[in-house]
Amino acid sequence: MSEPKNPPPISRARFQELLDAYGAEPARWPESERGPAQALLASDADAQRALREAASFDRLLDDGSVALEPSAALRRAVAEIPLRAPRVVAMPWLLASFARGALAAALVLALGVVAGAATAADEPAAGTAVATVTVDGQQVDGAADEDSLDALVELAFNDVLDEEQTP
Amino acid sequence: MERADEIELMRLAGSGDARAFRSLSDHFLPKIVAYAQRLLGRAAEAEDVAQETFLRLWQQAARWSPDARLATWLFRVAHNLAVDRLRARRDVGSAALEHAVAEDRPSGLLQRKQVASAVESALLALPERQRAAIALCHYEGLGNPEIAAVLEVSVEAVESLLSRGRRALREKLTGVHAQHHAEGEGP
Description:
Number of strands of chain B: 0
Oligomer: heterodimer
Strand order of the largest sheet of chain A: 1-2
Low-confidence stretches of chain B: 95-108
Largest sheet of chain A: 2 strands, antiparallel
Distance between the termini of chain B: 41 Å
Largest sheet of chain B: none
Mean pLDDT of chain B: 88
Number of helices of chain B: 9
Order of helices and strands of chain B: HHHHHHHHH
Number of strands of chain A: 2
Strand content of chain B: under 5%
Helix content of chain A: 55-70%
Radius of gyration of chain A: 32 Å
Largest interface: A-B, 44 and 64 residues
Number of helices of chain A: 7
Order of helices and strands of chain A: HHHHHHEEH
Mean pLDDT of chain A: 69
Shape of chain A: elongated
Structural class of chain B: mainly alpha
Shape of chain B: elongated
Structural class of chain A: mainly alpha
């Protein structure tokens, strides 16, 4: 909804309320009242005096609270976040489902090959094989049974299913 | 930062572009550190909060919706992390907030330090939401709708928080203000 072209004037009392809440800088006043407040200010000596008082208090707040600058160590740590932090991969639900199936199939195939090779070479326990798979930067050692496959797939897409607040 | 630049950098960061993330963090990190410091009064904790905020940004960038304002989201995450720390302090009965003044304040004239100490103590003595509203409005320049989004209150409530906060500050700083004003006027 757009603002009216000629918003109603504001009272002296309302002008004081604006100063009391937002201080003397018009940019901090609510947009809808900025014009009327400045119009009052242009013609009202009491409003001008009140503005000067509020500006004096603003200067005290400005001088009294210096913004902390980020340290070099913090800047470095933040810059390195992409190198060390896992990522959330956004996927539409259908694509995620397809990818889940494809990953599961690939794992079955890979583990089957490993199991077959191991069986041919020596004497592993029937129905199991040892494999190392890297998922999302994490190395997972697992036996090739159904539970471990589920765990691997879950690990790969856990973040996608996460319901965390998003930016 | 222009809105279009913000959207493009977030799109790139969401696809894993570390340079885009770096551009965003270079721009927003000082604001987030300063805000956390004003809420917490302790530089080391403020930096921890800022680092955690940007870690979450990186982890969540791919899910970012261009409808959202990034600054608002960052301030909200930092606010919530800082409030958690304030509550933890209260739970363990640690030092009063009034005494948790910044330890990394830049050096300067003694009088300036005294003013800074008085103002920071007065800010830290405010109730948490009043302090946050003043930090976001006066120091960070956010408008009412953005402050309302960060604090998760109504727009009307923001003005009330600001009014009560500034009134309390004026009362606490009456003497300092008079001296500061007189010195500002000059001989």
